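quick one: calcium ion bound model?
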Amino acid sequence: AKDLGRNNYQFYTSELTEQAFAHLSMQTQIRQGIDRNEFIPYFQPQIDSRNGQIIGMEVLARWQDHAGKIISPAEFIHIAEKTGLIIQLDRQVMRKAIQSFLGWHLDSLVSGKLSLNLAVKQLEQDDFFDFVNELLQDLGCNPNWLEFEITESDIMSNLEEMSRKMGQLRLLGIKISIDDFGTGYSSLSYLKKFPVSKLKIDQSFIRDLPKDEDDAIITKTIISMADNLGLEVIAEGVETIEQQHFLQENGCHQIQGYLYSKPLDSQAMQTYLLNFQKT
Ligand code: C2E
Ligand code: CA
Ligand code: CA
Ligand code: CA
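yep, here:
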Protein backbone atom coordinates (compact mmCIF):
# COMPACT_ATOMS: atom_id res chain seq x y z
CA ALA A 1 0.00 0.00 0.00
CA LYS A 2 2.91 2.25 0.81
CA ASP A 3 4.44 1.68 -2.60
CA LEU A 4 1.19 2.35 -4.32
CA GLY A 5 0.84 5.57 -2.38
CA ARG A 6 4.26 6.67 -3.44
CA ASN A 7 3.56 5.86 -7.05
CA ASN A 8 0.33 7.76 -6.93
CA TYR A 9 2.11 10.68 -5.42
CA GLN A 10 4.73 10.63 -8.13
CA PHE A 11 2.11 10.36 -10.79
CA TYR A 12 0.26 13.25 -9.25
CA THR A 13 3.27 15.56 -9.06
CA SER A 14 4.47 14.72 -12.53
CA GLU A 15 1.02 15.46 -13.88
CA LEU A 16 0.96 18.76 -12.03
CA THR A 17 4.39 19.66 -13.27
CA GLU A 18 3.34 18.82 -16.77
CA GLN A 19 0.32 21.06 -16.44
CA ALA A 20 2.31 23.92 -14.98
CA PHE A 21 4.84 23.49 -17.74
CA ALA A 22 2.20 23.56 -20.46
CA HIS A 23 0.74 26.66 -18.87
CA LEU A 24 4.09 28.37 -18.72
CA SER A 25 4.97 27.49 -22.28
CA MET A 26 1.60 28.74 -23.52
CA GLN A 27 2.20 31.96 -21.63
CA THR A 28 5.57 32.41 -23.35
CA GLN A 29 4.02 31.66 -26.72
CA ILE A 30 1.21 34.16 -26.21
CA ARG A 31 3.76 36.81 -25.30
CA GLN A 32 5.67 36.04 -28.49
CA GLY A 33 2.44 36.08 -30.45
CA ILE A 34 1.69 39.56 -29.15
CA ASP A 35 5.20 40.75 -30.05
CA ARG A 36 4.80 39.31 -33.52
CA ASN A 37 1.43 40.99 -33.91
CA GLU A 38 -0.28 37.63 -34.51
CA PHE A 39 -3.63 38.29 -32.81
CA ILE A 40 -6.32 39.26 -35.27
CA PRO A 41 -10.03 40.02 -35.27
CA TYR A 42 -12.72 37.81 -36.77
CA PHE A 43 -16.15 39.35 -37.24
CA GLN A 44 -19.62 37.87 -36.84
CA PRO A 45 -22.61 39.82 -38.18
CA GLN A 46 -25.62 40.73 -36.05
CA ILE A 47 -28.89 40.88 -37.94
CA ASP A 48 -32.31 42.44 -37.43
CA SER A 49 -34.53 39.47 -38.27
CA ARG A 50 -37.47 41.73 -39.21
CA ASN A 51 -35.76 43.17 -42.26
CA GLY A 52 -32.55 41.15 -42.61
CA GLN A 53 -30.37 44.24 -42.19
CA ILE A 54 -26.95 44.14 -40.55
CA ILE A 55 -27.12 46.05 -37.27
CA GLY A 56 -23.59 45.38 -36.15
CA MET A 57 -20.87 42.81 -35.76
CA GLU A 58 -19.01 41.20 -32.89
CA VAL A 59 -15.24 41.00 -32.84
CA LEU A 60 -13.89 37.58 -31.88
CA ALA A 61 -10.15 37.20 -31.39
CA ARG A 62 -8.13 34.59 -33.25
CA TRP A 63 -4.44 33.77 -33.11
CA GLN A 64 -2.79 33.32 -36.45
CA ASP A 65 0.50 31.69 -35.47
CA HIS A 66 3.77 32.01 -37.41
CA ALA A 67 2.83 28.91 -39.45
CA GLY A 68 -0.45 30.56 -40.43
CA LYS A 69 -2.59 28.23 -38.33
CA ILE A 70 -5.71 29.79 -36.81
CA ILE A 71 -6.03 29.14 -33.07
CA SER A 72 -9.34 29.60 -31.28
CA PRO A 73 -9.79 31.67 -28.11
CA ALA A 74 -10.64 28.53 -26.12
CA GLU A 75 -6.92 27.74 -26.25
CA PHE A 76 -5.51 31.08 -25.15
CA ILE A 77 -8.07 33.52 -23.66
CA HIS A 78 -8.18 31.83 -20.29
CA ILE A 79 -4.39 31.87 -19.82
CA ALA A 80 -4.15 35.36 -21.27
CA GLU A 81 -6.69 36.56 -18.71
CA LYS A 82 -4.97 34.80 -15.82
CA THR A 83 -1.57 36.24 -16.66
CA GLY A 84 -2.70 39.73 -17.62
CA LEU A 85 -1.51 39.25 -21.19
CA ILE A 86 -5.12 39.81 -22.24
CA ILE A 87 -4.56 43.54 -21.85
CA GLN A 88 -2.04 43.81 -24.69
CA LEU A 89 -3.73 41.07 -26.67
CA ASP A 90 -7.13 42.78 -26.65
CA ARG A 91 -5.63 46.15 -27.48
CA GLN A 92 -3.92 44.63 -30.50
CA VAL A 93 -7.16 43.04 -31.70
CA MET A 94 -9.18 46.16 -30.93
CA ARG A 95 -7.00 48.44 -33.03
CA LYS A 96 -7.10 46.10 -36.03
CA ALA A 97 -10.84 45.54 -35.69
CA ILE A 98 -11.66 49.24 -35.54
CA GLN A 99 -9.42 49.89 -38.53
CA SER A 100 -11.25 47.34 -40.68
CA PHE A 101 -14.64 48.44 -39.43
CA LEU A 102 -13.92 52.10 -40.19
CA GLY A 103 -12.97 51.18 -43.75
CA TRP A 104 -16.33 49.46 -44.22
CA HIS A 105 -18.13 52.35 -42.60
CA LEU A 106 -16.49 54.88 -44.91
CA ASP A 107 -17.41 52.72 -47.91
CA SER A 108 -21.00 52.64 -46.58
CA LEU A 109 -20.89 48.85 -46.44
CA VAL A 110 -22.08 48.85 -42.85
CA SER A 111 -23.87 51.36 -40.64
CA GLY A 112 -24.26 49.52 -37.35
CA LYS A 113 -22.03 49.04 -34.35
CA LEU A 114 -18.81 47.19 -33.68
CA SER A 115 -19.08 45.04 -30.54
CA LEU A 116 -15.88 44.31 -28.66
CA ASN A 117 -15.41 41.82 -25.84
CA LEU A 118 -13.84 43.41 -22.82
CA ALA A 119 -12.05 41.44 -20.09
CA VAL A 120 -12.50 42.73 -16.56
CA LYS A 121 -8.71 43.10 -16.24
CA GLN A 122 -8.80 45.52 -19.15
CA LEU A 123 -11.50 47.64 -17.61
CA GLU A 124 -9.55 47.72 -14.34
CA GLN A 125 -6.49 49.31 -15.98
CA ASP A 126 -6.03 52.91 -14.88
CA ASP A 127 -5.11 53.96 -18.39
CA PHE A 128 -7.91 52.10 -20.17
CA PHE A 129 -10.11 55.13 -20.62
CA ASP A 130 -7.19 57.14 -22.02
CA PHE A 131 -6.20 54.26 -24.27
CA VAL A 132 -9.67 54.09 -25.79
CA ASN A 133 -9.93 57.84 -26.14
CA GLU A 134 -6.57 58.11 -27.88
CA LEU A 135 -7.22 55.12 -30.11
CA LEU A 136 -10.52 56.58 -31.30
CA GLN A 137 -8.97 59.97 -31.97
CA ASP A 138 -5.98 58.42 -33.67
CA LEU A 139 -8.14 56.35 -36.01
CA GLY A 140 -10.89 58.94 -36.35
CA CYS A 141 -13.61 56.68 -35.01
CA ASN A 142 -16.91 57.95 -33.67
CA PRO A 143 -17.45 56.42 -30.18
CA ASN A 144 -21.13 55.96 -31.03
CA TRP A 145 -20.10 53.23 -33.44
CA LEU A 146 -18.69 51.07 -30.64
CA GLU A 147 -20.17 48.81 -28.04
CA PHE A 148 -18.37 46.84 -25.34
CA GLU A 149 -19.54 43.42 -24.20
CA ILE A 150 -18.80 42.58 -20.59
CA THR A 151 -19.79 39.25 -19.11
CA GLU A 152 -22.25 39.18 -16.29
CA SER A 153 -19.82 37.31 -14.02
CA ASP A 154 -17.07 39.90 -14.66
CA ILE A 155 -19.47 42.66 -13.68
CA MET A 156 -20.45 40.87 -10.49
CA SER A 157 -16.80 40.35 -9.54
CA ASN A 158 -16.42 44.05 -8.83
CA LEU A 159 -19.77 45.73 -9.05
CA GLU A 160 -18.91 49.23 -7.88
CA GLU A 161 -15.76 49.77 -9.88
CA MET A 162 -17.31 48.23 -12.99
CA SER A 163 -20.31 50.52 -12.68
CA ARG A 164 -18.07 53.57 -12.39
CA LYS A 165 -15.90 52.56 -15.36
CA MET A 166 -18.90 51.76 -17.50
CA GLY A 167 -20.42 55.11 -16.63
CA GLN A 168 -17.25 56.79 -17.96
CA LEU A 169 -17.47 54.86 -21.22
CA ARG A 170 -21.13 55.78 -21.55
CA LEU A 171 -20.24 59.45 -21.16
CA LEU A 172 -17.78 59.02 -23.99
CA GLY A 173 -20.66 57.66 -26.10
CA ILE A 174 -19.80 53.96 -26.04
CA LYS A 175 -22.63 51.59 -25.17
CA ILE A 176 -22.32 48.58 -22.89
CA SER A 177 -23.90 45.22 -23.36
CA ILE A 178 -24.03 42.40 -20.81
CA ASP A 179 -22.62 39.22 -22.33
CA ASP A 180 -23.64 35.68 -21.36
CA PHE A 181 -26.68 37.14 -19.66
CA GLY A 182 -28.49 34.70 -17.39
CA THR A 183 -25.42 32.65 -16.48
CA GLY A 184 -24.05 34.87 -13.72
CA TYR A 185 -26.33 33.64 -10.95
CA SER A 186 -26.64 37.22 -9.86
CA SER A 187 -29.32 39.29 -8.27
CA LEU A 188 -31.08 41.25 -10.97
CA SER A 189 -31.44 44.41 -8.95
CA TYR A 190 -28.05 45.62 -10.19
CA LEU A 191 -29.53 46.10 -13.64
CA LYS A 192 -31.55 49.10 -12.57
CA LYS A 193 -28.49 50.97 -11.38
CA PHE A 194 -26.19 49.93 -14.15
CA PRO A 195 -25.22 52.03 -17.18
CA VAL A 196 -26.00 49.26 -19.68
CA SER A 197 -28.00 49.36 -22.90
CA LYS A 198 -28.31 45.76 -23.97
CA LEU A 199 -28.62 42.21 -22.70
CA LYS A 200 -27.11 39.39 -24.70
CA ILE A 201 -28.95 36.14 -24.02
CA ASP A 202 -26.41 33.38 -23.51
CA GLN A 203 -26.26 30.73 -26.20
CA SER A 204 -26.81 27.96 -23.67
CA PHE A 205 -30.46 29.09 -23.42
CA ILE A 206 -30.85 29.28 -27.19
CA ARG A 207 -29.39 25.87 -28.06
CA ASP A 208 -32.42 23.73 -27.22
CA LEU A 209 -35.13 26.19 -28.26
CA PRO A 210 -37.96 25.93 -28.92
CA LYS A 211 -38.31 22.39 -27.47
CA ASP A 212 -36.78 22.79 -24.01
CA GLU A 213 -39.46 24.25 -21.77
CA ASP A 214 -37.08 25.64 -19.13
CA ASP A 215 -34.99 27.39 -21.71
CA ALA A 216 -38.12 28.75 -23.39
CA ILE A 217 -39.32 30.24 -20.11
CA ILE A 218 -35.92 31.71 -19.25
CA THR A 219 -35.55 33.24 -22.69
CA LYS A 220 -39.03 34.77 -22.61
CA THR A 221 -38.37 36.14 -19.15
CA ILE A 222 -35.10 37.79 -20.19
CA ILE A 223 -36.77 39.36 -23.23
CA SER A 224 -39.66 40.81 -21.27
CA MET A 225 -37.36 41.97 -18.51
CA ALA A 226 -35.19 43.81 -21.03
CA ASP A 227 -38.33 45.31 -22.48
CA ASN A 228 -39.56 46.49 -19.10
CA LEU A 229 -36.20 48.01 -18.22
CA GLY A 230 -35.96 49.78 -21.58
CA LEU A 231 -32.96 47.72 -22.67
CA GLU A 232 -32.19 46.21 -26.03
CA VAL A 233 -31.86 42.45 -26.26
CA ILE A 234 -29.90 40.20 -28.62
CA ALA A 235 -29.68 36.41 -28.87
CA GLU A 236 -26.39 34.69 -29.67
CA GLY A 237 -25.72 31.19 -30.92
CA VAL A 238 -28.81 31.16 -33.15
CA GLU A 239 -28.37 28.28 -35.57
CA THR A 240 -31.84 27.35 -36.81
CA ILE A 241 -34.84 29.07 -38.32
CA GLU A 242 -37.00 27.53 -35.57
CA GLN A 243 -34.91 29.27 -32.93
CA GLN A 244 -35.24 32.55 -34.80
CA HIS A 245 -39.01 32.15 -35.10
CA PHE A 246 -39.32 31.54 -31.38
CA LEU A 247 -37.24 34.60 -30.60
CA GLN A 248 -39.12 36.75 -33.07
CA GLU A 249 -42.52 35.67 -31.75
CA ASN A 250 -41.38 36.64 -28.28
CA GLY A 251 -40.00 40.02 -29.26
CA CYS A 252 -36.26 39.48 -29.70
CA HIS A 253 -35.28 40.65 -33.17
CA GLN A 254 -31.55 40.99 -32.86
CA ILE A 255 -29.92 37.76 -33.94
CA GLN A 256 -26.33 36.52 -34.03
CA GLY A 257 -25.27 33.02 -34.97
CA TYR A 258 -24.39 30.44 -37.58
CA LEU A 259 -27.89 30.83 -39.06
CA TYR A 260 -26.51 33.96 -40.72
CA SER A 261 -22.78 33.49 -40.59
CA LYS A 262 -19.84 32.04 -38.72
CA PRO A 263 -17.19 34.51 -37.56
CA LEU A 264 -15.23 35.65 -40.64
CA ASP A 265 -11.76 37.09 -41.09
CA SER A 266 -11.66 40.66 -42.31
CA GLN A 267 -11.31 39.74 -45.96
CA ALA A 268 -14.22 37.29 -45.84
CA MET A 269 -16.28 39.85 -43.94
CA GLN A 270 -15.59 42.41 -46.63
CA THR A 271 -16.85 39.94 -49.26
CA TYR A 272 -19.90 39.19 -47.11
CA LEU A 273 -20.70 42.89 -46.88
CA LEU A 274 -20.22 43.43 -50.61
CA ASN A 275 -22.53 40.51 -51.46
CA PHE A 276 -25.00 41.74 -48.88
CA GLN A 277 -25.15 45.12 -50.55
CA LYS A 278 -25.98 43.55 -53.90
CA THR A 279 -29.00 41.60 -52.65
P1 C2E B 1 -18.56 34.91 -26.46
O1 C2E B 1 -18.24 36.36 -26.36
O2 C2E B 1 -19.76 34.43 -25.72
O3 C2E B 1 -18.66 34.60 -28.00
C1 C2E B 1 -19.58 33.72 -28.58
C2 C2E B 1 -18.92 32.45 -29.05
O4 C2E B 1 -19.92 31.65 -29.71
C3 C2E B 1 -17.83 32.66 -30.09
O5 C2E B 1 -16.84 31.67 -29.86
C4 C2E B 1 -18.55 32.41 -31.39
O6 C2E B 1 -17.70 32.03 -32.44
C5 C2E B 1 -19.49 31.32 -31.00
N1 C2E B 1 -20.69 31.26 -31.85
C6 C2E B 1 -21.23 32.24 -32.60
N2 C2E B 1 -22.36 31.83 -33.22
C7 C2E B 1 -22.55 30.55 -32.85
C8 C2E B 1 -23.55 29.57 -33.17
O7 C2E B 1 -24.51 29.81 -33.90
N3 C2E B 1 -23.43 28.35 -32.58
C9 C2E B 1 -22.40 28.05 -31.74
N4 C2E B 1 -22.36 26.82 -31.22
N5 C2E B 1 -21.44 28.94 -31.42
C10 C2E B 1 -21.50 30.18 -31.97
P2 C2E B 1 -15.30 32.00 -29.92
O8 C2E B 1 -15.02 32.91 -31.08
O9 C2E B 1 -14.58 30.70 -29.88
O10 C2E B 1 -15.03 32.81 -28.59
C11 C2E B 1 -15.16 32.19 -27.36
C12 C2E B 1 -15.08 33.18 -26.22
O11 C2E B 1 -13.78 33.75 -26.10
C13 C2E B 1 -16.03 34.37 -26.38
O12 C2E B 1 -17.32 34.01 -25.97
C14 C2E B 1 -15.37 35.39 -25.48
O13 C2E B 1 -15.75 35.19 -24.14
C15 C2E B 1 -13.91 35.07 -25.63
N6 C2E B 1 -13.34 36.00 -26.61
C16 C2E B 1 -13.35 35.91 -27.96
N7 C2E B 1 -12.72 36.96 -28.52
C17 C2E B 1 -12.33 37.76 -27.49
C18 C2E B 1 -11.63 39.00 -27.42
O14 C2E B 1 -11.26 39.63 -28.43
N8 C2E B 1 -11.39 39.50 -26.17
C19 C2E B 1 -11.79 38.87 -25.04
N9 C2E B 1 -11.50 39.44 -23.86
N10 C2E B 1 -12.45 37.71 -25.07
C20 C2E B 1 -12.72 37.15 -26.28
CA1 CA C 1 -19.27 38.24 -26.56
CA1 CA D 1 -21.61 35.32 -25.01
CA1 CA E 1 -32.29 23.03 -20.40
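DSSP finds twelve helices and nine strands in the chain.
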